Amino acid sequence: MWVLTGDAELDEGSNHEAIAFAGPAGLERLHTVVIDNASASDARPGGIAARFEVAGWSTVTVDGRDHEALYAAFTAPHPGRPHAVVAQVEPKSE
Fold first, then answer.
1. Rounded CA gap, 3 and 92, in Å?
2. Which of 92, 74, 71 is nearest to 83 (CA)?
């Protein structure tokens, strides 16, 4: 299963709970792509990937405009763990 989300969506408590559950549960068929355009109001130490890593996820951060890097991130092995791909793009303008 693939889930597409934006960095600002990670400010919601229900998303944090899902992230915290999926890692220890070993949901290796769960994948998420987080579009990081710097629009989140809650900055996390270490960035978005660190938030997933601390919960037991496999993570990769890539340039969201680099198709080859995205493909490599999407197909990276992550046995026994859910997988998060953080796709960084230009910051959202106000």
1. 21
2. 74
Q: Using the predicted structure, report yes or no on whether residue 94 has a pLDDT greater than 90.
A: no
Task: List the strands of the sheet with 83-88, edge to edge.
Answer: 2-6, 31-36, 83-88, 58-63
Q: In this predicted model, what pLDDT tens digit does every residue of 38-58 receive, in sequence order?
A: 887 666 767 899 999 999 999
Q: pLDDT tens digits, residue range 68-78?
A: 999 999 999 99
- In degrees and rounded to multiples of 5, residue 17 shows phi and psi of -65, -40
Scan for tokens 């859910």, then name that residue.
Answer: 82
Q: Are 56 and 30 in contact (CB under 8 A)?
A: no
Shortest CA distance to 69 belongs to which of 58, 59, 60, 78? 60
DSSP state of 85: E
Q: Give the Å distances, CA to CA, from 79 to 58, 75, 83, 85.
A: 9, 12, 9, 15
